[in-house]
Write a structure and sequence with these properties.
By secondary structure, this protein is of the alpha/beta class. It has 15 helices and eight strands. The N and C termini lie far apart (57 Å).
């Protein structure tokens, strides 16, 4: 009979585990798609973090696997983290990785989009989003990007703009208090976050520019499947001193692109030539520090020219 729940259960029973997983994924995409982008654990990548951030993350992971021990002393594992730092330093990557480690899909909500899409109805939409997430009983993590555009410090005055902003902050406060699931927010302007919102997050993690060891690891990871000597990786990572992980990744992808396509275009594929072309076609975002490759290129080009090249390609 049409609409018979027993018929549905029987049909689901005939599905393979892979089919059930695909059906569940499709259902989640339909429910959450109007709020943002849903990303899944299988698509997460491990971030390369500075030692202090890595230590904080390790403790957090231990908390999540030690819920019973914490409960015995009246505590719960923390579930909310406010991530701050310059653009391109891996805030989204870190949140996605943490959610994946506990087996959760993550809804990435662009805060500026939710405000512009539902002008004068933003608070209502925030409520709907959190109610949908509560239905899953912690089955999805929420990540608000550009969070300062939603959670900006409240202001006095009776203008429609200030009233609307204050209403958004109040709606966020109410919904965060009701939500027991995993919640992330990212901002480039931590000082602009409303203090009451700030206090709702049990962790405030600042993710800065990578240091020497982190740059080396990032270059090595993103050069794969090319296997460059450590001397070469060091020369490249030194040239990216002061760069964000996103810009370093762009540079490594440019190197690989040049190694594959350069000969077809009759372009030189020595390392200084490749890096010079990249420097001419890319730059740090406005307001960000100028990395060494752009600030003082000559010594880096000499260093790059002396490094072993070209790299071998992993079979």
């Amino acid at each position: 009979m049409k609409g018979d729940p027993f018929a549905i259960e029987e049909a689901e029973g005939e599905m393979s585990p892979e089919e059930r997983a695909r059906a569940a994924k499709k259902e989640m995409l339909e429910r959450y798609g109007k709020y943002g982008e849903l990303v899944f654990p299988a698509d997460a990548t491990a971030p390369i973090l500075t030692r202090p951030v890595r230590g904080a993350l390790q403790q957090w992971m231990l908390e999540m696997s030690s819920a019973d021990e914490l409960k015995s002393v009246g505590l719960k594992p923390r579930s909310r983290a406010l991530l701050s730092g310059p653009p391109g330093c891996g805030k989204t990557t870190l949140a996605h990785h943490v959610a994946a480690r506990v087996g959760l899909p993550m809804l990435v909500v662009q805060s500026s989009d939710i405000i512009s899409k539902w002008v004068a109805q933003t608070g209502e939409q925030i409520g709907k989003l959190f109610r949908e997430a509560r239905r899953d009983k912690g089955g999805v993590a929420i990540f608000f990007d550009e969070f300062d555009s939603m959670a900006h410090k409240r202001k006095g005055g009776d203008t429609s703009a200030s009233t609307e902003q204050n209403n958004i902050v109040i709606a966020l406060l109410q919904e965060i208090d009701r939500f027991d699931g995993m919640l992330f927010a990212a901002t480039n302007q931590a000082k602009e976050i409303d203090p009451a919102i700030w206090r709702r997050f049990q962790m405030q993690i600042e993710i800065g520019f990578p240091g020497e060891m982190e740059r080396f690891a990032i270059v090595k990871m993103y050069l794969a499947p090319f296997l460059a000597d450590d001397e070469t990786v060091t020369a490249i990572s030194d040239a990216f001193s002061g760069a964000s992980p996103a810009l370093i990744r762009e540079g490594c992808e440019s190197i690989k692109r040049s190694l594959v396509l350069g000969p077809k275009l009759s372009l030189p594929v020595d390392l200084p030539a490749i890096m010079s072309r990249f420097a001419a076609s890319a730059a740090a975002a406005e307001g960000m520090p100028i990395p060494s490759l752009w600030d003082d290129p000559i010594p880096h080009m000499e260093h790059l020219g002396a490094a072993p090249w070209p790299p071998k390609r992993k079979a």
